[in-house]
Amino acid sequence: MNNPAKNDSPLTDISASENMLRSQVEMILETARELGATAAEVSVSQDFGLSVTARMGELETVEFNQDRGFGITVYVDECKGVASTSDVSCESVNDAVKAALNIARFTQPDPCNGLAAPELMAEKLPELDIYHPWSISVEGATSRALACEAEAMAQDKRISNSDGATVASQLGCLAYGNSHGFLGSFLSSRHSLGLAVIANEKSGMQKDYWYTTSRRSEDMEDELSVGREAARRVLARLGCRGFKAGKMPVLFSPQMAAGLIGSLLGALMGGALYRNVSFLTNSMGNKVARDDISIREYPHLQRAMGSAGFDGDGVATSSKAFIKKGVVDNYILSAYSARRLSMQTTGNAGGVRNVRIEGELSPYSELLKQMGSGVMVTQLMGQGVNAVTGDYSRGASGFWVENGELAYPIENFTIASNLKDMFLGVAGIGNDVDLRGNICCGSLLIDEMTIATG
Question: Is the pTM of this model over 0.85?
């Protein structure tokens, strides 16, 4: 166990770092120009963090982190070189730029290399309200973690063990610039509290968890609520029973549905499309989901986890539909992948931001009634998604649903289908939206999947 010193201080405001990082970007770009780069782009980041874990009534670990580094990409005509370092001294910067230039001189020319067009750069960055430092001390974080775990353990004597409760606070600053003259930067924060507990009875042992996370600490669930929810979830998993396998409807919990949507979006990523390793290659304008379903991103939402004013190429982000009323409306493209596809970047270098699934939403209880009998999935195991064919096969656990109600917990079964069939067969979307991540959605009811038991 690591015992903190009495005078440990909380993380402090890091806004002063922003001007320093912007100056470093400008200096590195100037160095690249002087050493012969035709064009260059630089990303510099600095992160500060505190993480405190308590387990079985005792403080277990206290971790502070402070990381800084930069990555530089240089272009010599159509040749590209990349280097990175955590040392931002003048000597180290010169060495890194020289290394990137040497790499560029030995690589094959690629006409798709280069910066995004200058007119696509973000001119005015939106205020996103994503930076809220949390003035919490080690002692305060320890107290919350201990209280969270104690609350869970107090709910039922069958909860006999814990993987620990962790309170974490992370602050970051990122600056990006390129030789078009674009220079953008932002500060961000992310705070969290999570707990995993273990329950045991004659039928066996189960583990489950719950967590809360937010840009602003005041928006998090309190530690007692997190403890009670972790306890409720693990107790609900006790007493697993068997069920008859076959083809039946499957209801994905919001957390599992987000991963399902992520798999579909992965097939729309430019890298997969130009390599022809996606089942949605050449799918622009094709129907891939139920008519009333749209999947959109909103990168400028206030205090949301994925919000950003510019992408990894410096291109201005914007709201857009990837799936619009069931039809592919946009791919997910960076400047490079767009050129490979003879298209224009969608401002998604680095991925998607604040994805929402839209359509007719129903209460969770109504989705259970609609499915009648079938399987609700609350946990998934394995990586059984074939991006080339869309075939989907995952190990799972969850609950058997009978007459529109949760009947009993089930585990060690497999769900299988194809992503095309699954999204065309969406029978309902829940209004129980989980807002904790970058892909936010409610429960998702699929009309039919093949279920196999061990």
Answer: yes
